[in-house]
Amino acid sequence: MVKRFNRPFTQQEAISETAIARVTEILHTGRLHRYNTVSGETCEASLLEEEFARWQGVKYCLAIASGGQALQIALRAAGLKPGDKVLANAYTLAPVPGAIFAVGGQPVLVEIDDNWHTDIDDLRSKAEQSNAKYFLLSHMRGHIADMDTIVAVCKEFDICLIEDCAHTMGAKWKGTRSGNFGDIACFSTQTYKHLNSGEGGFLTTNNPEYAARAVIGSGSYMLYGSHGAIPPEEVFQKVRLEIPNCSARMDNLRAAILREQLPDLKENARRWNVRYRILETGFAAAPGLTMVERKQHEEFVGSSIQFKAPGIGREKIPDFLTRCAERGVEIKWFGGEEPVAFTSRYDSWHYLGEMDPLPNTIRVLSTTCDMRVPLTFSEQDCRDIVEIVSDEAAIFKTSVATNG
Ligand SMILES: *Cc1c(COP(=O)(O)O)cnc(C)c1O
Fold this sequence. Notes:
With 404 residues, the protein is α/β, with parallel strands linked by helices.
């Protein structure tokens, strides 16, 4: 009997009973909007901001409607004007170019290297050529580049560094939390990320003016004073008329769900990594597949796993993945010419106009495969996945070998 896997790759864990109870309580009050409070009450969204700021180790935190909105508002808060150039690593998810486009920025895409990190040499040369003053860095799929060097390049060229931590909430690099290297960090709490409120996100910073502009930009009207982790009033007085209201507020229901989840994030990161290590070891031993070794100083959160399939080859990868899918194992490919589901390559973002070719990025992505690792999978599930993927890889590896 051929082994089949029959659990969904998109199934996250249930929302806890305590979170459900708290949400129900709020529903009974009818006060779902963050500025709808009774005298003496601090809303859930503000409490969440205090808690996330403390957890992240930053001064200021804004809870927001989505990670994508966090990116847009971060760019505006940092002072971006229409027509300004924005450096961005080309391997990322569609909300990143979408955010740059939405604020009128001109993306300058940077190559990635064989480890899926921003290519530092290309970053340096594009920083020099373009004179861009912003770098929107996605720690894509949790792979954190050499942050010492990236921060140094940003200093050298006077570039404002905005970190997209959608895949690195809870991760660290040389002991520093991802998000605390740049000037502003953005997080997502959309269902498939490390906290799950359906939609949602955070913006964090230690810069008081960026923080105040972000709060105003999120749609605080002049009610910003009730926020949980904000700079003093005089900073708001200075900036409050400088940024448009983008209506991207977090509501109290989502905030309540997130407040219940935050204390479990550290333990969940550990659980993700137990699963990741089983898959990593298994895939590394599979014929035709290679893993990128994670660097010692990268404390990542293995909520997804990437591998390359050079031994199967670009032409056969779609067939290999179809066969895996027929046995219930869902793997995405970043090498396709057409965008599929959540996965797209930079050359399918046509609204950006003509982009300079990025041959290294195309080459690396042409054999890059990507799999979600939801916490609803058991360790045995991960071993079953390894078995199926290894079986199928062996078939293709053999046929490649016999076809020369
Ligand atoms: C999910 C994601 C975002 C945006 O988050 P949303 O909350 O879905 O808007 C941004 N960047 C990356 C890399 C992501 O994966």
